């Protein structure tokens, strides 16, 4: 055991936690050296970081001597310099580009030559570290803003939150180089890759948040989806991941997001590379779930004129104003050409317009043709009209893709009793596990390892894998995607797949104090929750790939 860090919101809570910690240490005969302990402090050096209230900084002890660091004379010296500095790269904007001349020296079969560009990069890096940058601590209870940009050589992003002074301060920096293959992407793919990388890097802060994530980009095509195009596999994969977040894409001029732009560009490259953002390329609109595009907005405003329901509400709003007390009329407000009911866009009585709205949401590839109530829930986030739920149910019942691909799940016999969840349990404390196999191969993968939280959140983890993997590989995937994020579960439920029933898997569970239960023989419906998830995934994949089937 090395370091223990105990933190709390106030002094009372801190004392209670400290008392529990001491009892645990005493129970297991673990001892602490008083001279190495610090108690009741507001600043601590932990894992190479100086942690203070609301922000973190680099450890000055680790940076000692950097001002006197001589330029490396060998490849080994460059590796030592970069290896030491990579630990603090999250504090340095433009890191990928600053280190590019130095990284080029590490290429195989290349003669070591310290050029002027290498010296400039070396000096700039030293200056960056000596400037002692700080990052504020992310607060998941406040909204986030992401500035993202891409160049020909790298992607960059900045995660920001508004501080107590009203200014938007950086929480994290991200800068990654593009591989030779990624440099061949079209500009809309590179810009989208910058957003994808940012969300992937900071998903533990952003996923499931209370507020919409605002993404600032200088590529206007990311905010307007008007020309539908065919998705390739890469775009489809990104689309599926992006659909897990509540995103709001906002176009801003490049000069307004200078930090993200600097993270992806280098000053000496500007004269050699044309501004890719001037390319007129339309991003495929199926990459994102639509809310309300410009064409639909104009159609709604145009059809409001002859709508009787709208005329009555509008007349009262214009002539009587908002009522002084709460009434039915107070749910309405007029903004520009649109009428809003309880913050939802009122859609006039036009069947074709209703069908377009429902179709744009129900048939979005990233959604996978949801059922009646899921479609109603997604439509009513932004739209409302009288009889909306009835119209949507009728639309979903008549959807050809749903009728062809979905499975009838109405039970033909009395269902078995489900596994009871533990009250007040943690996420994935009790989980179910299964494999979906024999899928079309993609990037060498032909199966999916599915883990469902049976205890509290009902969350799902999908991990691509291969049908031929063994028990050891399954254990590695669980460690990487389940244990690292949520800790060890208390109980795992699975079917009787030979890989789950092996002595190795059973022994791993025994050593880690994990109870392992397997379903009844020849009755996969024992774990009905998992089977339902598998059916939904298979239906989604069939719907998503319906136009590609031969």
TrEMBL record:
PROSITE patterns: INTEGRASE, RT_POL. The keyword Hydrolase applies. SUPFAM superfamilies: DNA/RNA polymerases, Ribonuclease H-like. Keywords: Endonuclease, Hydrolase, Nuclease, Nucleotidyltransferase, RNA-binding, RNA-directed DNA polymerase, Transferase. GO terms for biological process: DNA integration. GO terms for cellular component: nucleus. Pfam families: Integrase_H2C2 (PF17921), RT_RNaseH (PF17917), RVT_1 (PF00078). Residues 423-550 form the Integrase catalytic domain. One of its GO terms (molecular function) is hydrolase activity. Residues 1-51 form the Reverse transcriptase domain. This is Pro-pol protein. It comes from Moniliophthora roreri (Frosty pod rot fungus).
